[in-house]
Write a structure and sequence with these properties.
Layout lengths: L2 H21 L2 H17 L8 H30 L8 H4 L1 H15 L2 H11 L4 H8 L6 H20 L21
Helix pairs in contact: 1-2, 1-3, 2-3, 3-5, 3-6, 3-7, 5-8, 6-7, 6-8
Length: 180
């Protein structure tokens, strides 16, 4: 097995999980993950000690781009629809609505803030986040706090104060801790 193949097998599933939590479509997540690996394969400068970070950053950016495309498409489709159709039971579920609100809020943040929140919520350590986003590890905590504040401000602006006391998120919007 070549070095790239081993690297691929080591990280493929985790990259898919990160992307799937953003785009909510496992098949599309696989396509985006493969696209990220393809970009890594074609970019020799990215293949080195920081390849893992480069790959996560690229995958998250591709996922956010896809999320923004989906948001634009839905907005366009709603604009061309006639009267609103009756909501399905799944659309009424509180958790699904909260996750969608989180995704929309993430799509409105600057890329670095969204990337920080996504990578950290996926369980990456500060060091791993720093490597993935090419940041000074000492600044990750501060940048993460700023990203969380920006997220909360955008969320409250769009949806009002979160009031789901069952969430147990300490004032964070329901679903903000985990997307998937």
């Amino acid at each position: 097995m070549t070095g790239f193949e081993a690297f691929f097998h080591e990280r493929y599933e985790r990259i898919i999980r990160v992307v799937a939590r953003v785009v909510r479509d496992p098949a599309r997540a696989e396509e985006i993950a493969v696209e990220a690996f393809w970009k890594l394969w074609r970019n020799p400068k990215a293949q080195g000690d920081q390849a893992g970070g480069w790959l996560y950053r690229t995958a998250v950016r591709l996922a956010l781009d896809e999320l923004r495309r989906q948001t634009r498409r839905v907005r366009s489709e709603k604009a061309t629809e006639g009267p609103l159709s009756a909501p399905t039971p799944e659309q009424l579920r509180l958790d699904d609505e909260a996750r969608e609100q989180v995704r929309r809020t993430l799509a409105r943040l600057d890329s670095r803030s969204a990337e920080l929140l996504l990578l950290r919520s996926d369980g990456l350590s500060y060091g791993e986040v720093a490597a993935a986003l090419d940041l000074n590890p000492a600044s990750v905590g501060t940048l993460l706090t700023r990203a969380q504040r920006a997220f909360r401000k955008e969320y409250v602006t769009r949806y009002g104060e979160p009031n789901d006391e069952r969430s147990g998120l300490g004032g964070r919007p329901h679903g903000a801790a985990r997307l998937g």
